[in-house]
Amino acid sequence: MDIVTHGITGLLVSRSLPRGDSRSMMAAGLIGALAPDLDVIARLWDPMAAVTVHRTATHSFLGGAVIAVLVAGLVWGISRDSFFHLFGSAYLGLLSHIGSDLLTSFGTAILWPLTDRRFALAQHYLIDPIFTILALGFLVASFRLMQRRISWANTGLLAIGLYVVIAAAIQRTAFIRWQEFMELQGILPTRSALLPLFPGPFRWLGVSETEKGFYQQSFALYASNTDAPNLFSKSNADLRELERLREVQVFLSFARFPWKREVYDRGLRLVEYRELAFADHPLGILGGPLSLRIWIDESNSVRKVEFGHRF
Fold it and tell me: What was the pLDDT predicted at 286?
């Protein structure tokens, strides 16, 4: 989810607690909900950090507990309120961050350091207006109607939970529709996936793989027609030498539907890897899909490596 939604949800969680009307408890919940994304600073020294570091240690249950201790200590140093209660608010706020990120399609390593495996329910897009409006509406109500603060905050969390359940049911319906659509096209995929699109939950991106290549198409769940899927043919080029590069290995270990192609750009051979499980951002403000581009000269020397992402 986006950083604004994380902050709003963290505050809502803190407001649902018995002492959640205190500034220190709200501060702990808010900071705890925002802290996991501090891992983005890893981009300063690792260009591939978006897929190697982001949503790993700081987004895990164990790493999150350590962060919550630090957040609670920070707030306790200023307020001298109960460290135990501050830790609870910070950790619950942080868990709200982890939980909402799990709903997206990027993947979150919640069991780090036991495993680097990323888990993703892929029900909600990174920006989900309905989710955000629900959280914000009940957060405002918890402030405006102070005598029923806990009730409004808990009702808000229940409403968000209900929306998540409904989105899961919609996702299942959409996946069945994508499978039926593939059958109508005469395509028999070996595997398929469905990814959420903005604004959700009624727009989806279907991706299927066959021996011939990958098929990808966006569709609205209740639209009468869906355009024919785009075919990304598989390349027969031998890229084993190139795939010894760390950047390529990292990309391929992360991507679920990696497609590659070769073109020429200003006299240089350009090899592009693209993750088809992601589509262009609808607002055009967060960059294109996840991709890795490598420029190679006539002597097979790598001249330039460019990693593009919107995360």
Answer: 43
* The token pair that represents 57 in the structure block: 């240690």
Alpha-carbon span 298 to 286, nearest angstrom: 34
Kindly report the pTM of this predicted structure.
Answer: 0.92
Query: How many domains does one find in the chain?
Result: 2
Q: Which domain holds residue 286?
A: 242-308
pLDDT tens for 3-43 read 999 999 999 999 999 999 999 999 999 999 999 999 999 99
pLDDT in tens, 100-152: 999 999 999 999 999 999 999 999 999 999 999 999 999 999 999 988 999 99
- In the predicted model, what is the mean pLDDT of the chain? 93
In a domain, 51, yes or no: yes
CB 214 within 8 A of CB 257: yes
According to DSSP, the residues that pair with 265 across neighbouring strands are 268
Q: Which amino acid is at 241?
A: E
Query: What is the helix, strand, coil percentage profile of the chain, to 5?
Result: 50, 20, 35
Is 258 part of any domain?
yes
The last residue of one of the domains, among 92, 121, 150, is 121
Residues in the chain: 311
Closest CA to 9 of 42, 44, 36, 41: 36
CA-CA distances (angstroms) from residue 207 to 118, 163, 179?
19, 25, 10
